[in-house]
Design a protein that fits this description.
Number of strands: 0
Oligomer: single chain
Number of domains: 1
Length: about 60
């Protein structure tokens, strides 16, 4: 999904000759990135953390 939006932004940059509208497209792309994709990254990090913490606790208990 991110690749599609990057390609769309690239197409807008190449094809768009109106410089004022170009900045609007870039701002919109950054907004979509922030709204949709950074939340997915944060959620994935949460899941990884929730899996690793019990693993480290069990490894600590096993060493003791």
């Amino acid at each position: 999904m991110l690749m599609r939006e990057c390609l769309l932004l690239l197409a807008c940059v190449v094809c768009n000759r109106n410089k004022k509208r170009l900045s609007c497209v870039i701002c919109k792309a950054v907004g979509v990135l922030t709204l949709h994709h950074l939340g997915s990254v944060a959620f994935g990090s949460l899941i990884i953390t929730l899996i690793k913490i019990p693993r480290y606790i069990l490894m600590y208990i096993e060493k003791k």
